[in-house]
Amino acid sequence: MKEGAAEVAQRYFDRVRERDLSVADLFHEDASIIGLGGQKNGRDAIRSFYQASIEGAGPSPEIVGPIFAAGARAAAEIKISLDDGSTLHAMDLFVVEAGLIRSLTYFIADH
Fold this sequence. Notes:
The protein has helices spanning 5-17, 43-57; strands at residues 27-35, 38-41, 60-63, 68-70, 73-81, 87-97, 100-108.
């Protein structure tokens, strides 16, 4: 049985927090990540994105409240601590199909 959107999102956050580059394996081959005015398409580009992010900033996401899920969609408010001591406040929106992430759109609060 395939995991629901909330469970896939939780595994995503766990892998990012563990600095596990297999986070890219949670995405479909032709998935996309959209945010900060850019878009990464395909698992190879997504893997490169996470490798650069994890090695360069060491993001450690903490989910603030519950992961909201309805059907194939999940949303989570997160606080991301970085290796330099700074934090980001973000909202991640997932579309999950067949147990894999089809798309992830993220919004960073400007404060």
